[in-house]
Every structure is written in structure tokens, then in C-alpha cells.
Amino acid sequence: ARAYIRMGLERPNHYSLMFMTPLIEADSSLMQEKIANPENDSYRLFRSIVEDCVGAGAFKPELTDAELLAQTLWSGLHGVLSLHIAMGDHPFVDWRPVETRACFMHDLILRGMLREGVACPQLALDPAQTPPA
Predict the structure, then answer these.
(1) How far apart are CA 73 and CA 88, in angstroms?
(2) What value does the mean pLDDT take over residues 20-31?
(3) Spatial separation of the C-alpha atoms in residues 69 and 75, rounded to whole Å
(4) CA distance 76 to 42
(5) Which of 21, 32, 100, 107 is deepest in the core (most CB within 10 A)?
(6) What's this model's pTM, rounded to 2 decimal places?
(7) What are the CB-based long-range contacts (under 8 Å, 24+) for 121-125?
């Protein structure tokens, strides 16, 4: 999550191109080649980590759909980053620091997914930084 957030903040144009612009048709041979190679498919890697967590019993017992869990966590972080990129300098919202919002979103979603008794380490972009409780 840290790397995803950092990339979006440090390279907003790259982030917009990669995650906010449709580039490849779903049925194209290039897309089929991409999803066939886990080294080129970051979503597949992320989903496999979520599947491992489901298998290890880290999530609430009713949360067994790794696809849904991965998409929900990704969507939350993407929402924070895409709002920041598209409207972060608009004066009509008293924006809190984007790093704080991204870490808070990550922690909020994850806490809601984890079963009781499983520790949820708070995400901080800077290891010395402590996110809000």
C-alpha cells in the first residue's frame, strides 16, 4: 500500500495514465498477454496476497471472496489518490493532508475486514510518522 500511495503522489501524471485512463481493450492480445504473466499483472499479485490472508484466517469468517476484498481495498486507496490528483487544489474543500487521508482509508477498510484478535498495524508513509488513531 505504501508503494502504491507514494507512486500516486510522487508521479500523479503516471498514476492518471496507468489507473485513470482506459488504454487497452479487454479482449486485445496485449491485455491477454499482460494478464497471463503475473510479473506484469500487479492486480493479480495483490489479489494473491489477499487470498493468502483469507486462507490464513486473517479476515472475518464471512469475508471469503478475495476478489471482492482486493477490489474494495484498492478502490478505497484509488479514490483518495484520484480525488487528490483531480481536485486536491480546489478551495471548496478544506482538504486534510493526502498522506493522512490515504493511510486512514487503508486502516479503516482493513480494520473492517480483519477478524477479531488480528492486529492491524497502522500504515504510515514515513515509518517515523504516526497516523491518526
Answers:
(1) 21
(2) 77
(3) 10
(4) 17
(5) 107
(6) 0.79
(7) 123/1, 123/2, 125/2, 125/5, 125/6, 125/99
